[in-house]
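Researcher: Good morning. I'm working through a list of sequences from a screen, and I'd like to move beyond sequence-only analysis. For each chain I'm collecting a predicted structure so we can compare shapes side by side. This is the next one on the list. No need for commentary yet; just the structure.
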Amino acid sequence: MIKFTEPYISGLEEKFIQEVFEKRNFAGDGQFSEKLSSFFKEKFSLDYSLITPSCTHSLEMAAILADIKEGDEVILPSFTFTSTANAFVLRGARLKYVDIRKDTLNINETLIESAITKKTKAIIPVHYAGVSCEMDQIMEIANAKDIFVIEDAAQGIDAKYKGQYLGGIGHLGAISFQQTKNIHCGEGGALFCSNEELFKRAEVIREKGTNRKHFLRGEVDKYSWVDIGSSYLPTELANAFLYGQFAKYKDVTKRRLEIWNKYFSELSDLSDQERVILPGVPSHCEHNAHLFYLRVSTSKEASRMVSYFKENGIQGTTHYVPLHLSSFGKKVGEFVGEDKFTSSESSQMVRLPLHMNLSDKDVSKVIEVIKNFFKS
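Model: Good morning. Structure tokens for this chain:
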């Protein structure tokens, strides 16, 4: 069976985990947390970063930092995972779903402004498949209206928009290190802040609402409860594992792009025949090959393709059911404007296997099975 996804192992994770055992410091915010923050600053130009237990937790912290309250509104695509929405619903926000673009499946930046009201507090662009939303236009709209931009860059590690790394363009950004991601620690995440003021408050929120971190740096003579917060600290075991992954992160991106490009090249003839739509990547975006997907003519054809994959020893799958079509999504939000692409494009999607354990032979077989599917 050619698996849809498998977690990557660099071979250095155990070495760094052993260092944690030797030092007997298993709690969060230790040496590997600091090493990761330094790494993000040096390699990704992300000056203010905090490691968290998950991207979900990062988004929850972002919602607190943006001061989301009962009755506020946030604008987001409906084509996303529940974490994008839950973080703000937990704070009492009302969701305003905006349609996606047909090419990238990202939020349509030209529709955002019409969804803004006096209650709008934040815009949540989701960089689907590691391909950036149109951040210049989104930031221009937000800054003119004094609205927070919180990037859901869960799938976006090592991807760029016009030379800037995803997660570090908006006022706040969240990234995922869950085991299906390119780089992972089983479960993990990071929060990126655009300035020192947000970062210092984020440190408090992450430490159960105390200024303990500031105390440890000698900035206050004792620490106490100063704000709301929770325990958003991952164990040093997870941090050490993650640091071992980043030792070879460029190799990961390179190999995944090789697989992605082979899929794209070998399946282009089906695109030319209008049998499938291949992923769209604007020229000013550098993606990370997190996902490769096809869009076929109908949802029934997508289901048939997934079944055909299974018959031929391949795991393929569809993706999110749009939030506005779910029972709870309808309760906590509403779609603004026409649902031109969200429901239709998402229902016609088939995702292909893409991970570091795929051989060239595996990739060729997937391509062959897809072509045989259309021949039959």
